[in-house]
């Protein structure tokens, strides 16, 4: 894991909520279809454990997606993460922040592509994956060493746990 600056460490400690894009963050952004048109995806169980650990710090989580997709919905249900879908991500993100009574400097956003840029810019802390869109790489406060779908969410969770100086396994 990369060494973090004192500024980034302070931001990590201040986070109360993280909004996530799904495709390209939890997944490698690929879609698998069988001959009947049934869609499947691949996700990391390591990400799941990391998310459970940061929840113990009181950090709330949500997926913000433009695509209402039953595969994403099922995975979010399994992870016990609310999934918000709609045409524009930033209004959804702002609404969740407002409902949690938080300020932008208390929230993070983790996205990988152009439709995540507004949320990345709005959030107090912006994360993207190593293979994120160039504009996201430029905007992010932290770029994971891991690529999309390859335990990148877990890397961010571990980074937060380290900033809070707690064991990975609380």
In summary, what is this structure?
This protein has 7 helices and 8 strands; from the N terminus they run αβββαβαβαβαβαβα.
SSE inventory with pairings:
Blueprint: H1 6-14, E1 17-20, E2 32-33, E3 39-40, H2 45-55, E4 60-65, H3 70-79, E5 83-85, H4 89-99, E6 107-110, H5 117-122, E7 125-128, H6 134-139, E8 142-143, H7 152-163
Parallel strand pairs: 1-4, 1-6, 4-5, 6-7, 7-8
Antiparallel strand pairs: 2-3
Report on the structure:
The chain is of the alpha/beta class. It has helices at residues 6-14, 45-55, 70-79, 89-99, 117-122, 134-139, 152-163; strands spanning 17-20, 32-33, 39-40, 60-65, 83-85, 107-110, 125-128, 142-143. The strands form 2 sheets. Strands 5-4-1-6-7-8 form a 6-stranded parallel β-sheet, with helices on both faces. Strands 2-3 form a two-stranded antiparallel ribbon. β4 (60-65), α3 (70-79) and β5 (83-85) form a beta-alpha-beta unit. α2 packs parallel to α7. The mean pLDDT is 93.
Please write the string of helix (H) and strand (E) elements.
HEEEHEHEHEHEHEH
Which bin fits the share of residues in helices? 25-40%
Main sheet record: 6 strands, parallel
> In percent terms, what proportion of residues is strand?
15-25%
Distance between the termini: 19 Å
What's the number of extended β-strand segments? 8
Which residues sit in consecutive blocks of at least 5 with pLDDT less than 50? none
The quaternary state of the protein chains shown equals single chain
The side-by-side strand order for the widest beta sheet comes to: 5-4-1-6-7-8
Number of helices: 7
